[in-house]
Amino acid sequence: MAMIATQTSLSGSSQSPRSPSTQPFLSVSVTDPAKLGNGVQSYISYRVITRTNLPEYQGPEKIVIRRYSDFIWLHDRLFEKYKGIFIPPLPEKNAVEKFRFSAEFIEMRRQALDIFVNRIALHPQLQQSEDLKTFLQVDEETMERARSQETGIFKKKPADFMQIFKDVQSKVSDAVLGKEKPVEESNPEYEKLKNYIFELEEDLAEAQKHAFRLVKRHKELGQSLSDFGKAIKLLGACEGNSLGKAFSELGSKSEMLSIKLQKEAHNLLMKFAEPLKDYVRAVQSIKATMAERATAFKHQYELAETIKLKEINLDKLMLIRSDKVGEAEIEYRELKVEGEEATKKYEMIVQLMNEEIVRFQEQKTWDVGVAFHELAKGQAQLANEIADAWRSLLPKLEACSSAQT
Amino acid sequence: MATITTQRSLSGSSQSPRSPSAQPFLGITVTDPVKLGNGVQAYISYRVITKTNFPEYQGPEKIVIRRYSDFVWLRDRLFEKYKGIFIPPLPEKSAVEKFRFSSEFIEMRRQALDIFLNRIASHPELRQSEDLRTFLQVDEETMERARSQETGIFKKKPADLMQIFKDVQSKVSDVVLGKEKPLEESSPEYEKLKHYTFELEDHLAEAQKHAFRLVKRHRELGQSLADFGKAIKLLGACEGNSLGKAFSELGSKSETLSIKLQKEAHHLLMKFEEPLKDYVRAVQSIKATMAERANAFKHQCELAETIKLKEINLDKLMLTRSDKVGEAEIEYRELKAEGEEATRRFETIVRLMSEEIVRFQEQKTLDIGIAFHELAKGQAQMANEIADAWRSLIPKLEACSART
Question: According to the model, what pLDDT value does residue B402 have?
Fold first, then answer.
């Protein structure tokens, strides 16, 4: 379970009066991954345990079984309905086949899914979503039905987002090259933000790649120490007296240190490399929201252009007292309503995004600080244990070298 | 320079009387590797500095220039002349082409050559060798002439030694299979020693391989830390305020640690892996001496057989009062002398080897003890520095996270 700060503001839902000591809370656990199905169709299912005192939910505790595609369903629904909000990111869909059921991968995924749901539960708007309630409460058959209904309607593939982005970017370059009028916001502060996000994603991806490599190197060093320890022990077995003992001590110490290194490799992975990866996903989520904002802006802008043309046309028709005026007037009014709607949607996104940016920066500063702390702490502890282990060996080795016969 | 224990007994050389404070000493340094020549013919030359008060040597200090093949010449001559003695081993001849002139390889080789010469200088018999004197004193042209003369005459390739060994081993298996009388010593203690030596070589080679791998892993982890540090600093550059500062501190710290790891990797290589490798070579030198011993035994056995036959033949001739008796008698006596000579040589080897085994065990125990000590010390020190570095970072990181 991720750290949860209890929310005190819940808007929009009818509540029975409660004493100030009964804070509203909603906390979720994703646990007990189990492998189900056979062969190619096998998959992992998770237990999702919801504990809450919110009246919209059934009872203080509810347990359901969910699989990865159910989480995707929730993510996509929220992305569609809450434009402007940075939807918490999901762990990656694909994995190398042979790695897909390794204990490490399953644990990493479970942790990421747990964080995902809890972030939604903590978000002032997202936590009120109907889809969240569905996800946390309905039985498996209902969930499956809901999931299969959504295919094709709401699902935008990441490729689509990239396309939207590319459209936006190409429009910008067209404008620069003087090809056509830009359909882009010309807000310098927002430009700055977009630049920052793009640069951040690149630098983060690089850092995250090297963080994972660091994990790998720890594992390799650990393996090497283990092999070395075994070889040294074999050597000691054919020597006698004090030298053989020295070999044996050294071999055992190496094997023990190997275990420590493997432990730290795992710790690095879960407490540092994965959080960095999570940061990357979060930034990608922001980019997706930026794409939605660009789409909303373009839509709103194009409608405005169309309305202008319709206005000019209407005036023309009125001047020549055409009988088409009535029809045109109705069309014009409808368009104006649509335009206001589009403008309202766009402005809502802008407003939400401003709040989201602040939330994001705070949360990220906190998360990264924690991750760095874990890194430094884990590494310091490992190094200390290693130093102690080697130092404890020194007097024993000195005893062996001095005892020569 | 390896540690040299001064030898008190010097036999066979005329000495001027000396005061008890002027201990005889012979100290050698192999230094200043320099790349000479061009392209394919390029090679490394070393300065060999001899400091001694032995009267057989010219003056208190002499400096000569030597290359690897000169060392090989010296080793081969000693191997031929001092059968029974474990000749100190040389570093390997070949090296992967692109690695051959890397500073690390050159330093490893220099260290090994230095140890080689100093071991000879410390050995009570070997240090008196004429060939050693030649090696340490003659000018380069004379050395080159001596080196090229020896090709083909004395040079036994390692392959030849292995062949001798295989012969010995196949003879053993022949006996086991009941094929023929063994031409092998039947000393159970010596058998044990042979077994031990073979087993030791296997296990040592394995341990040395993994020690080398350990060095490599240190380097890789160090490289990874450097890459990571750079990436984190780039990240910090686009963040602002306290978070950016945290990134920057972390990045710098990683780069510092990367350097420490590379340093320890080098230390591991020179002070642990190389000594282990040296141990492997020493054991191979023992195996070569065992092959020589087997040779001498076989030679002595075969002569004894021949002498028996000659004796029987001689008796026959004497019975028949043949005129060939005189000739046969002379032949018989010559063979007996040869037989005694061969037996003496074999027994010398056996005696020398017994002393050598004791020396070897003592020296090896000491060397390995030192190598293990270096390993533990270096690792402990590095780990301590790493722990301190990370711990010094924690308060700075806490300062960053505490802000909202």
Answer: 63
How close, in Å, is residue B243 to chain A by CA atoms?
6
Mutate to test the interface with B, among A379, A388, A396 (most CBs of B within 10 A): A379
Which tens digit of pLDDT belongs to each residue from A250-309? 999 999 999 999 999 999 999 999 999 999 999 999 999 999 999 999 999 999 999 999
Q: Chain A residues with CB inside 8 Å of B379's CB?
A: 386-387, 390
Residue A115 has pLDDT above 80, yes or no: yes
Residue B54 tokens, joined: 């032995």
A390 chain-B contacts, CB cut-off 8 A: 376-377, 379-380, 383
pLDDT digits (tens, 9 = 90+) for B315-363: 998 898 888 888 889 999 999 999 999 999 999 999 999 999 999 988 8
Give chain B's mean pLDDT.
85
Q: What is the pLDDT of residues A38-56, one digit of tens each?
A: 888 888 999 999 999 988 8
Which of the four pLDDT bands, split at 50, 70 and 90, describes residue B182? Answer: low
Enumerate the residues of chain B whose CB falls inside 8 A of the CB of residue A216: 224
Res A150 pLDDT > 80? no
Domains of chain B: 5-167 (3.30.1520.10), 189-403 (1.20.1270.60)
Neighbours of A242 (CB within 10 A): 19
Q: What is the pTM of this model?
A: 0.82
Q: Tell me which chain A residues have a C-beta less than 8 angstroms from the C-beta of B5.
A: none
Using CA atoms, how far apart are residues B147 and B126, in angstroms rounded to an integer? 19
DSSP category for residue A267: H
Of residues B206, B383, B393, nearest to A376 (C-beta): B393
- pLDDT more than 70, % of chain A: 84
The ipTM, to two decimals, is: 0.82
Closest CA to A171 of A160, A185, A159, A158: A185
CA-CA distances (angstroms) from residue A79 to A83, A347, B149?
6, 17, 87
Tell me how close the Cα of A191 comes to any Cα of chain B, in angstroms: 15
Pick the residue from chain A with its C-alpha nearest to B243.
A365
Distance between CA atoms of B402 and A312, rounded to whole angstroms?
A: 59
Q: Nearest Cα to B65, choosing from B138, B13, B130?
A: B138
Nearest CA among B7, B56, B4, B5 for reference residue B28: B4
Nearest-by-CA chain A residue for B224: A214
pLDDT tens across B40-68, in order?
888 899 999 999 998 888 889 999 999 99
User: CA-to-CA distance for A265 and A18, rounded, in angstroms?
Assistant: 47
Q: Measured between CA atoms, how close is B346 to chain A, in angstroms? A: 28
**Cβ-Cβ contacts under 8 Å for A330 (sequence gap 6 or more):** none
Chain B contact set for A245 (CB, 8 A): none
Overall average pLDDT of the A64-87 stretch:
95
Distances (CA, A) of B348 to A218, B301, B354: 54, 15, 10
Q: Check CB contact under 8 Å for A373 and B394.
A: yes
CA A28 – CA A41 distance, rounded (Å)? 28
Facing B203 at nearest CB: one of A216, A235, A372? A235
Take residue B21 and report the two structure tokens written for it. 């404070």
Count A/B contacts: CB-CB distance under 8 Å.
179
- Whether B207 and A232 lie within 8 Å, measured CB to CB: yes
Cβ contact, residue pair A224, B217, below 8 Å: yes
CA distance A391 to A69: 52
